[in-house]
Design goal:
Length: about 350
């Protein structure tokens, strides 16, 4: 089922018997796991359906990495499978107990919620598995990362949404008004979207905690995914080692207006992230990134060193404020065209940084 931002429901015709997981790629193709036929089906925006994987065992959630590989929580074998773009299927991780939710962080680590173990596991891009959280959970389901790198967990057994920071510390995000939440997502404005199985509805929870039903009358909704085009990341986060001089981190992106927005105008938030990735597996983070936004001619549109120095209120309202005050961000409304974000180190310093571009409207 497709649900608009206004809550209007529409049916997507498919041959799927029991949908159990869904994910969109950046071109608008949707991938759906079918636990009845033990397969994954791909549906293009034109409605063309293709079975891209079969012979699975009760597949649940799906996730895509930056290279287009599809990951499947194969709960029947307590494993995660990796399906390459050419259809090659391999086992990525084993020893999981009822894998339910999948989510990638900005560094390419895959996080897996395990209902059977009441735990969350972290799997590195090389396949190394470690326990991220093993306490404070009760039948964790869907998971998603927010803009600051915290992991959101639909904790079905406790009727709550939990937040897990980078160090694995668990805290309550939403504890009232939910009834067996099964999945959670977050938009670029910081709103949480929750598939609330017990109330047969999809709920929106604002950053202030206001709960609003987007749609009701569903039958035990268990998963959800944001379609591209609504507050999505315009380009996959780019990570690189920023050197001195002209050896900077460069991220290019294209802005194109939509019929729903003002014609030819798009508001974006560009971020340069460094200090907040210090606790990850990335060595030598850039401790004070400086951000420049250029147009197609190379002219500078805006610069920022520390995001709280300029546009503080506007950036906080997006729900995408960087986690560290030394990081940089620029909010801008841009005409259609190509743009470049440059990240360099303050005082000619070096280190690993991320550049990200989010479409706001």
């Amino acid at each position: 089922m497709k649900i608009s931002v206004d809550g209007i429901q529409s049916i997507i015709p498919t041959t799927i018997v029991t949908p159990s997981g869904v994910v969109f790629d950046q071109t608008g193709d949707v991938y759906i796991a079918d636990s009845a036929t033990n397969s994954v089906v791909k549906i293009t925006p034109d409605g063309i359906q293709t079975t891209i994987a079969s012979g699975l065992a009760n597949p649940k959630d799906l996730a895509l990495d930056s290279s287009g590989n599809l990951y499947v929580a194969n709960s029947g074998t307590n494993s995660v499978l990796k399906i390459a773009p050419d259809g090659t299927k391999t086992t990525f991780a084993t020893g999981l107990n009822g894998p339910a939710g999948l989510a990638f962080d900005a560094l390419g680590n895959l996080f897996v919620s395990s209902k059977g173990s009441n735990a969350i596991f972290k799997i590195s891009p090389k396949g190394t598995k470690s326990t991220f959280v093993n306490a404070g959970l009760n039948a964790p389901g869907g998971i998603a990362f927010d803009a600051t790198g915290n992991l959101l967990v639909a904790d079905t057994g406790s009727n709550s949404i939990l937040t897990v920071d980078r160090n694995g510390n668990v805290s309550a995000e939403v504890t009232r008004g939910l009834n067996a939440p099964a999945d959670v997502s977050v938009d670029a404005l910081g709103n949480l979207l929750v598939a609330d199985t017990g109330s047969n509805s999809i709920l929106k929870i604002s950053p202030s905690g206001t709960i609003t039903p987007i749609t009701t009358g569903l039958i035990a909704p268990e998963f959800l995914a944001m379609a591209p085009g609504l507050h999505q990341l315009l380009n996959i986060s780019t990570r690189a080692f920023v050197e001195t001089g002209n050896h900077v981190l460069i991220g290019g992106f294209i802005v194109r207006g939509t019929p729903e927005a003002d014609l030819g105008q798009t508001t974006v938030l560009v971020r340069a992230i460094g200090p907040s990735i210090d606790s990850s597996d990335v060595p030598d983070p850039l401790l004070n990134p400086v951000l420049e936004l250029h147009d197609s001619s190379g002219a500078i549109i805006a610069t920022n060193d520390n995001w709280m120095d300029t546009q503080k209120g506007q950036i906080q309202q997006t729900g995408l404020a960087p986690a560290d005050k030394r990081e940089s961000a620029i909010k801008a409304t841009l005409p259609d065209g190509t743009y470049t974000a440059l990240v360099r180190g303050a005082n000619d310093t070096s280190g690993v940084a991320l550049v990200e571009v989010y479409k706001l409207k």
